[in-house]
Specification:
The complex is a heterodimer of chains A (222) and B (76).
Chain A (H helix, E strand, L loop, with lengths): L2 E6 L6 H12 L2 E6 L11 E4 L19 H11 L4 E4 L1 H8 L6 E3 L7 E9 L15 E8 L3 E3 L2 H9 L3 E5 L10 E5 L5 E4 L17 H11 L1
Chain B lengths: L1 E8 L6 H12 L12 E6 L6 H12 L5 E7 L1
Antiparallel strand pairs in B: 1-2, 1-3
Classes of the chains: A alpha/beta (222), B alpha+beta (76).
Chain lengths: 222, 76
């Protein structure tokens, strides 16, 4: 049976939604792991860093969480090839931890953005995006204040050239460089994205475009 | 002993908060302000023996995000 862990930080608030999405869609034995743990459950097939406001966004969004004891174990697992999915605050934490390039800055329009946005699937060859067609337009909600992805031009060119832009906003949402909504690490086993796929897994939620991310992932892992 | 650490956005990095502050300053009727950049001041009380290298290491490991920010260390 597939095994997954969702990391909980003080201030995480999408941890349960993420665990439900993973459990319901993939059937994985999913545990919630507190950030003070220095070790992860053994034999994990997936680690999810959920959304929220870890440590009240003190210092910078994700900065404190990225230095939590559990993150050393997450970094080690990512290095071994374990898939790591960071959503929203999870994306911020992964950039702060150095697992993904760039930084997520205050939205260019200053305001918190909370709405469903259109996304283009830029790369459907990754383990996280194989459930989509290349160039497909999907709809997934965002809810963030610091989603403005920044990286220098050389880094952005490299990300684009290496197919590491997983998702792009179909229209400007937060000032993100090149409308980037989600990026992969160089090995392709770490994905950070601002939109919340776990909030779009069944029709009752207004759509199920997020569901195929998890469905694709289970096929890739199995 | 006290050390002040100033964390500022790198040149070229858009600063929406600075822009909003600039607009607010103009809204109060002040003119002649060309640009505003917002940063962060961190004051650290510490033993006199704490090295500059340790302070720099604190900055690069936590206090500043070197992708977007610079820091300056001002020892009293």
């Amino acid at each position: 049976m597939m095994r997954a862990a969702v990391i909980q930080f003080p201030g995480s608030n999408c941890d349960r939604d993420m665990a439900v999405a993973i459990r319901d869609i993939t059937g994985a034995d999913t545990s919630l792991v507190w950030h003070r743990e220095s070790a992860l459950p053994s034999g994990l097939d997936l680690i999810a860093i959920p959304g929220g406001f870890s440590y009240g966004d003190y210092l910078r969004s994700g900065a404190m969480a990225a230095r939590s004891p559990v993150m050393q174990a997450v970094i080690a697992a990512a290095g071994r090839g374990v898939p790591v999915l960071g959503v929203c605050n999870g994306f911020q934490i992964l950039t702060e931890a150095g697992l993904l390039p760039g930084a997520l800055m205050r939205n260019a329009g200053i305001r918190f953005v909370c709405r469903t946005v259109g996304l283009t699937v830029e790369n459907n060859q990754s383990m996280f995006t194989s459930g989509y067609s290349a160039g497909e337009k999907i709809h997934i909600p965002v809810a963030h204040h610091d989603g403005n992805f920044f990286a220098d031009d050389a880094t952005l060119d490299r990300l684009e050239g290496e197919g590491r832009v997983a998702f792009r906003y179909a229209e400007p949402v937060n000032g993100s460089a090149r409308n980037i909504a989600g990026v992969l690490n160089d090995a392709g086993n770490v994905l950070g994205m601002m939109p919340h796929p776990e909030r779009m897994i069944e029709a009752m939620q207004g759509g199920s475009d997020g569901r195929r991310l998890f469905e694709g992932l289970i096929r890739e892992i199995a | 002993m006290k050390t002040r650490i100033f964390v500022t956005l790198k040149n070229g990095v858009l600063d929406p908060q600075g822009k909003a502050i600039h607009h607010a300053i103009e809204g109060l009727g002040f003119s002649g302000v060309h640009d505003v950049r917002a940063g962060r001041l961190i004051e650290i009380e510490h033993e006199p023996g704490l090295s500059k290298a340790d302070l720099e290491s604190m900055c690069t490991k936590l206090l500043a995000n070197m992708v977007i920010e610079n820091f300056e260390i001002e020892q009293a």
